[in-house]
Amino acid sequence: MSKAALELLAPARDADIGIEAVNHGADAVYIGGPGFGARDKAPNSIADIERLARHAHRFGARIFVTMNTILRDDELEAARQQAWQLYEAGADALIVQDMGLLELDLPPVQLHASTQTDIRTPEKARFLQDVGFSQMVLARELDLGQIQAIRAVVQDATLEFFIHGALCVAYSGQCFISHAHTGRSANRGNCSQECRLPYTVSDAQGRVIAHDKHVLSLKDNDQSANLELLADAGIRSFKIEGRYKDMATVKNVTAHYRQLIDGLLERRAKHYRASSSGHCRFSFTPEPEQGFNRGGTDYFVNGRQIDIGAFDTPKHAGMPLGTLGKITSSHFEIDTGDATRVINNGDALTWWDRQGELQGVPVNTATPLGGTLWQVEPNLHGLSEGSTVQALKDLYRGLAISRNRDMAWERLLAKPSAERRLWVDLTLAQIQLDGEPGFELTLKDEDGHRGIARLAHPHEPARDAKQAEATLKEQLAKLGNTQFEARRVRLALRESCFLPASQLNALRREAVAALEEARQEAWQRLPRATPVEPPVAYPEDTLSYLANVYNSRAAAFYARHGVKVIDAAYESHEELGEVSLMITKHCVRWSLSLCPKQAKGVTGVQGTVRAEPLTLQHGDEQLTLRFDCKPCEMHVVGAMRKNVLQQFKQQIKTEPITFYRTRPAA
């Protein structure tokens, strides 16, 4: 039985971050191109994609480019041209959600189904495999049993799963609150993150259940403890969220999961292998909690959990630092309780006030007072002129202080922090070149590629055989700044020979160049999957606005696959009344212990709790929560704001745009 390849898939905001992701152990990197990516503030030029691909391919790593927005009809040709440009630049796959792209003249590049394609069922996953997708990222809400059920029917495509980072509370591609309230479409790469706002929750009688809580905000995904379970369930690509994340975060989190996956590969060597080549060394110990995070959850992988929400704040609360001591008008003291714990100028401190709100202040100057005690002068810039430390809210002796920015950590990761190398075995042999004495150096890398260089040179006997042998091995192993590292050096010499260092170095450089060329020549593109013919039927014959059909080619795709009724995407502005703006597995009732299932069997409570709708209020915005208890899902219901409709009408007047509509425009 062949081993299954496991892929660590890291995000990149730009090519430089992507290069560091590869250096820190990523088997693949996903990144946005010039346009049509679902993070509109993270575009990259074709030249930068080519630069990143060239670096990644040296280690057999892959570059996947996001083209995962929904497209208007007038954008399809530009998207087609971009797809060809990315292919020619060396991109290994395109990540897409709009099925209209499959109707275009695309290059023979591999296609991956974006999270926005909303893959929750075996039927949907099998359909996407059969229409030509080679890899697909499953919905984050799935548990291990559901993943196994998909794996049972999807044998040819690679299953991908998010293992770390921010969680979108909605089922992927099923959130329209941003567009309804602000006109900014998450499906078009411009989500306003209404889910991170504070809401007051009221019941049907108007009673307040929760006041100004971020009840739609989730903790961050952390599957560190579940990688082996996920692999055994059928996941082959482990995806880190974060195309807006900074360099330090990508380095840190990628290195963390590289170490975990390497440990898994070592334990399960009979079953799994790495999907790219090389080994990494880090100059730091990865600590994912040092980066921005809202606390960790493994979400639904091991079943529904009650503590998945980050209801108090959507911000990074930080790591425990110490307790507050003496407070004056200009400074305060912190006891870290650990003599090795250093407070730095520029650190950011946080604490919870008496109302449960997160407060914070940056450090201007930190001075050690001896032992575990530090004097901190905070940076009060931003407060009213003349403000003192007493203006900071709810500071008191014994208060627990955390740190959400550690300048020493940031300085550490601002430096080169990893190197990635390929193992290579070197063999130096005596040969005859056209009847003349000479030497042959063979380099064989861990993938079996070879680079050979030959040198005509007399076989001069060495004066000190032992010293000469040691010198030859030492010189040959000096591979410097190349991508290679010597694993073994073998001397296949009939007799001890002397070879000048300059000649030996030239021979080694030539062999390295030959090996690099051999690796380039052996490089193969990922194969494009062939769709099943005749076209397979879509699992349903009716599509609502939830299917995100925004152009006529996407509508034609679904019609070709047996769909009879195809509604237009929400962004087409045909659903003007109250509709489900978000569908989520997260349940506010469950998280607030108001679910009828939780009351089952509880004397005096069972039968008194019903899944009645709740109301969310933020300023003038009001949303209704409705609960579908059979599939255990929550619908966030609302309508599009009038100013958003007016804004769209103005855009239609000034821009020549066309998009799919179920009904003719009024």
Automatic annotation (TrEMBL):
A Pfam family of this chain: DUF3656
Residue ranges of domain Peptidase U32 collagenase in the record: 403-519
Entry keywords, A to Z: Coiled coil
Signal peptide positions (record): none
InterPro entries: Pept_U32_collagenase, Peptidase_U32, RNA/ubiquinone_mod_enzymes
Domain of life the protein comes from: Bacteria
Coiled coil (residue ranges): 462-521
Protein name in the entry: U32 family peptidase
